[in-house]
Amino acid sequence: MAHLLKGRRLYPELNQQGSQQASEVNQPTTQSAASNPFMKQQEFNPYQHTQANYGQQGGYYNPNQQHYQQEQFQNPNNPYANPQTTQANPRMQNPIPDQSYHQTPQNPSSVQQQDVAKKQQANLGPKRKPSKSKQIDSDKIPRPEFNSESSYAPKDYLTTSYTNPPPSYWNYITRDEGCAGPRYARASLYKVPVDESLLNSTQIPFGIILQPFADPTPDEETVPVVNYGEQGPFRCTRCRAYVSPHWMWTQGGASAVCNLCKMTNAVPKEYYCPTDETGLRRDRFEKPELCRGVYEFAAPSIYSNRAPVTSNIIICLDVSSSSYLSGIFHQVLSSLQSLIDYVQSPELTKICIATYDTALNLFLVPDDLTKEPTVVSIPEIDDPCVPLPIEAVFLNVQSDREKIDYLIQKITKYYESNEKLTSKGVYATCFGAALNSCCNMLFKDGGRVLIFASQAPVSGFGKIKRRDDYKLYGTDKEKTLYVPQVDDYDQLAKKCLEKRVCVDLFCYAPEYFDLATIGQVCNLTGGNIYYYPNYNGNYDGEKLHYDLARNLTRYVGYDVVMTVRTSQGLAFSEYVLPTGRRPIADLELSALDADHALAVYFKHEDKLPDEDDVNIQAAVLYTNPYGERMIRVINVKLNTSKDLVNIFRSADVEAVAQLLIKKYIVQINSTPIKAIRDSLTSKLVDILYNYRIHCATSSSPAQLILPESLKVLPIYIFAIFKAHMLRISGEIKPDERSYDLHKFTRYPCNVLSNLWYPKLISLHDIYESKEFAAGSLVEETQRIIVPANIAATDEKIDDNGIYLLDNNETIYIYVRKEAEPELIQSLFGVESFEDLAQLTAFPQFVETDYFYRVNNIIDSLRKYKNGSYQNVRIIPEKDPMEAYFMYLLMEDERGGPSYSAYLCDVHKMIQSRYN
Questions:
Q1: What is the C-alpha separation between 699 and 708, in angstroms, rounded?
Q2: What is the full DSSP assignment across 855-867?
Q3: Which of 282, 438, 811, 860 is the most buried (most CB within 10 A)?
Q4: DSSP three-state, residue 363
Q5: Which run of H or E residues covers position 495?
Q6: Which contiguous run of DSSP H or E holds residue 639?
Q7: What percent of the chain has pLDDT over 70?
């Protein structure tokens, strides 16, 4: 990372040499530039502003600098690893006597008590004026809280415990004992009502949030793979479910009873194994499909009627003046050069780099790299085609590595010398035609298109008109802005889906782009949308780099066909996707990545057996990055119940919130924003009212009663009203709502929970280094102590405070003007508060214990995000970004009523039901 902090590294498990390297951490090291393209090293002077300069060696590009610096990286096997300093570290050579940040706590459990004490002490400090609408003591309001103990001593979650899993934003270790863990499938209810009427008595939606390719943490086992050759996996002859740990074995192991449809199946001779005295197979611990909840089968050839998808990737760059002058063009090329070695299966992956402005440009690389490349321009924008063999413009990542470097350098020089681009200006692009041509290039073998865009197409294929009429905002006609205005992209998306092509869009258009129309090609194919409407290279270049890094290096399944099966009495109802509700159990996507989560809803078909189990199995047939056809099987087993108290107690608030929210926000193109907000609040009132009348009848009507398991559900619903998605105050751009719709319907639980309710951490309270100080390393677990968060409200902001806020997209460090100069100097390496304006990024190295511990907290917040890697932005008081930061304190009145006022309104609605 360009601005990532340097100094003592506290994660030896990220280093290739493990504990051996950890013991040598005090010695300054120098890594080669080829080691890790995700991290950049440079000389750092804490009293002088530094820029992040990236160029020929890849990384971040800064358009304000004309020179380049060689990069130094760490750990070639981990592109997100922490960097080490490339210069002698004076702290390492002459350690400060007090280094308690790396001491082992004698009693780690006391950290929680210290967190409580710090919160109580913080409440006594000078606070900003409370909200006028405050009607409830904010200290008594339930809110999502990060468990500090989980940061350094995560507990095991046994998947057969049938208990509610930990919150997704806590650190925990899943132990797969035959059921899928919550990273792969998180159910809204872990005790399922026995019939539909009982479910209706709760008003809780029943379903799961499914993330088939979720990344396990380093402490968890990877998904095992089983290969039974051409005979394939053992399946039920009736419902076609795959064998699982929940099948029953009869007749000494000669027969197997499917746990879904109860069909008795004859066991093939080659799969037979006798049972023990308990009726269980003796080889159950030798076969992952008999003891694990998530596993994979190698698919036999009969499971595919066409050739596997080839890992072809097209990078299509916007080279208009706005893209070039903003630095995005250089940023993408330099990042691409540093990331290309980390794509999965480089020996099978081919890459094509194309550019477009008013025409699409392709490049032919000569065998003799002393010659210039051939530029093939395709000016046709209405019915584009590629007038040359497709293979000619693709380069193999492994065997053609030198040619890729050559091409990136030549493309850079080609446009640097383009007078029309740099002087006269090129501001119109043929985005639609370029996208169409790139997709067509992949129709034969499949693959992915990563296209970068600075403005919407106004001519040629897929051209659109500007329709963001401010007069429609907040009216019933606003919903028309979210209906695609042309069907070009919808038709292209359907063809891409048929031809197994996935599209990822990187959009940095400062003005109208119409994501509602153009985004269809991403939403239908399983692709991503990345949106930077106010792109600034100093802040967003780093974010763009890591977004591209995650996109190119995470696990991706191609040519995906997924189906969900259920046990008797229960039935699949629908998926809710960015494109809307889909009532068909078989789902096809061109690609499905590790960060893609789906909402799956179920319904009752019949009464479920009391005190029995409910079984759900999701099967994903796909092609992995190595060209192998695989079947990933995910098993979920839940208990049934007819006791409403137990049913409410078993609710998982994150899954409930997401199932509720997703089902309503996809109606944005047919329902006014206010109606969606009212529906969500009404549904919340229904749940809380039903809990009161069925489970808390003795409580006073004057009290707002919240189920323990759902106590933070109101704040998740309220948070959506503050997001661009459903905000009604101010002028929200249609593209901002469309982008939120995309995020909120495909992001996983751990991302959405933090995005909806950002975690605010007080940093000035941890300045003094103590035995159990936040940010210190617990030697026993090799983990960092991360302090608990405080309420996201300005009532908790001290006039002399320093705060960290994590919303899972960016880490903000907010500094109040009256903060102690000693803290500012220790953390940022500058003399005074006024000097903070010089910093565009968090310092790489400051020789203080306080800096190291804050650095460790930031690293730890990033480390356990399963793919999300946030940039850090400093916001001093009175900075132009302060207003945005304050808006992230979503419990306050900004952008609508305060959370306390909303709870009062909800309570009044519940009380009105009694009248």
A1: 14
A2: HHHHHHHHHTSTT
A3: 438
A4: strand
A5: helix 488-499
A6: strand 629-641
A7: 83
Query: Residues 548, 335: contact at Cβ < 8 Å?
Result: yes
**CATH no. of 312-553:** 3.40.50.410
> What's the DSSP call for residue 651?
B
Contact 358, 379 (CB under 8 A): yes
Task: State which amino acid sits at residue 646.
Answer: N
Residue 597, burial from CB neighbour count under 10 angstroms (0-12, 13-18, 19+):
buried
What does 228-257 look like in DSSP terms, one character per residue?
-GGG---B-TTT-PBP-TT-EEEGGGTEEE
- Rounded (10°) CA dihedral 720, 723, 725, 727: 90
Helix/strand/coil for 693:
helix
Tens digits of residue pLDDT in 207-219: 999 999 999 998 9
Q: What is the mean pLDDT of the chain?
A: 84
Helix (H, G, I), strand (E, B) or coil at 112: helix
**Whether 688 contacts 914, CB under 8 Å:** no
- Report the distance separating Cα 172 and Cα 149, nearest Å: 10
Q: In the prediction, which pLDDT does 729 show? A: 76
Domain ranges (residues) in the chain: 1-53+60-87, 100-130+758-889, 176-307+556-640, 312-553, 652-756+893-915
Contact, 209 vs 659, CB < 8 A? yes
Cα separation, 147 vs 149, in Å, equals 6
Task: Name the E strands within 442-578.
Answer: 447-453, 501-507, 529-531, 556-566, 570-577
Helix (H, G, I), strand (E, B) or coil at 782: coil
Residue 147 has φ and ψ, to the nearest 5°, of -85, 110
Whether the CB-CB separation of 258 and 234 falls below 8 Å is answered with no
* Parts of the chain with a pLDDT under 50: 1-58, 61-134
Residue where the block lists tokens 């009161």: 692
List pLDDT tens digits, range 53-67: 223 334 554 444 433
- Non-local (6+) Cβ contacts of 198 within 8 A are 642, 644, 647
Residue for token digits 């049913």? 647
From the number of C-beta atoms within 10 Å of its C-beta (0-12, 13-18, 19+), residue 728 rates as middle
Q: Is it true that domain 652-756+893-915 has CATH number 3.40.50.11540?
A: no
- CB-neighbour burial class of residue 588 (10 A; exposed 0-12, middle 13-18, buried 19+): middle
Task: Determine contact, residues 574/599, Cβ cutoff 8 Å.
Answer: no
Burial environment of residue 705 by CB neighbours within 10 A (0 to 12, 13 to 18, 19 or more): middle
The CA distance from 158 to 163, in Å, is 9
Q: What are phi and psi of 763, to 5 degrees?
A: -95, -30
Helical (H) or strand (E) element with 156: strand 155-158
Q: What is the pLDDT of residues 742-779, one digit of tens each?
A: 999 999 999 999 999 999 999 999 988 777 899 999 99
Integer Cα distance of 434 and 428 in angstroms: 13
Tokens 């080279």, residue located? 319
φ/ψ (deg, to 5) at 300:
-70, 165
pLDDT of residue 389: 82
Tokens describing residue 799: 């006039």
User: What topology does CATH give the domain 100-130+758-889?
Assistant: Severin (3.40.20)
Tokens 């800096």 belong to residue: 851
pLDDT at 812: 95
DSSP, collapsed to helix, strand or coil, labels residue 174 as strand
Cα 901 to Cα 131, 689, 897: the distances in Å are: 10, 18, 6
CA separation for the pair 377, 279 (Å, rounded): 69
Report the residue count for the chain: 915
176-307+556-640 under CATH 2.60.40.1670, yes or no: yes
Rg (CA), the chain: 28
If we measure between CA atoms, which residue out of 530, 356, 529, 514 comes closest to residue 431? Answer: 356
